Amino acid sequence: MKSSLTTELPGRLIAVEGLDGSGKSTQIYLLKRWLEMSGAKVFFTEWNSSVIVKKATSKGKKRQLLTPTTFSLIHCTDFADRYERQILPLLKAGYLVLCDRYIFTAFARDAVRGCARPWLHNLYGFARRPDITFFFNTPLQVALSRILSGRPQLKFHEAGMDLGLANDPYESFRLFQERIYREYLAMKDEFGFRVIDGSATIETQQAVVRDMVSQAIDLPRYRWKTVR
Ligand SMILES: Nc1ncnc2c1ncn2[C@@H]1O[C@H](COP(=O)(O)OP(=O)(O)O)[C@@H](O)[C@H]1O
Ligand SMILES: [Mg+2]
Predict the structure, then answer these.
(1) Which three-class secondary structure state does DSSP give residue 164?
(2) Which residues make up the binding site for ATP (predicted)?
(3) In this predicted structure, what is the pLDDT of residue 2?
């Protein structure tokens, strides 16, 4: 049997990546609405916890029991569950699958936490590479100010406090995001990211995103067939 990694599947996979506050969710939401309005079969999924490991993840995080390796493995289990139960079946069923964060989020975060990059790439080797990966290249200061202007409560791991970079959560978040940004920049050529200027307006970005999707994917193929 041929592996599902190499066989052509009818669906197409589109991912958005970038820092917190870089504009990913805004753009993928607008893309989703536009595709749905055109009558396309669309499935949207986010980088969040599946029921299967939610308890283990929150327990491990709360008690700070996780090492970079176990932290990474738990997130990978989480992703694998979502991948095998949702993303892959929908790609097989011929959907346009839109992912708000994909494996590159794990590559960036876990590498910053000290996991070896080749180990991470191998760990996530079961996951298909997206047909299009948009990278929202928003300057660090812009992304930070979008997130931090409201002085949100940052969670311990969200602020990267486990890395011991700073005692102040906001300062820790800054340093953590800076390192993640560097990882994204280092990955962009290897993984063929489509780089979107994160300082452009929402409308300009969306026009570029739609244009690139239309160029790369034969969209009429993904419309629901009307039954006569
Ligand atoms: N191009 C843009 N210009 C100005 N503000 C933006 C832009 N894109 C998004 N925003 C705003 O920045 C904040 C973060 O955007 P969001 O799409 O949630 O980012 P992400 O999903 O990458 O964390 C939101 O308040 C959003 O309205
Ligand atoms: Mg978001």
Answers:
(1) coil
(2) 18-25
(3) 53
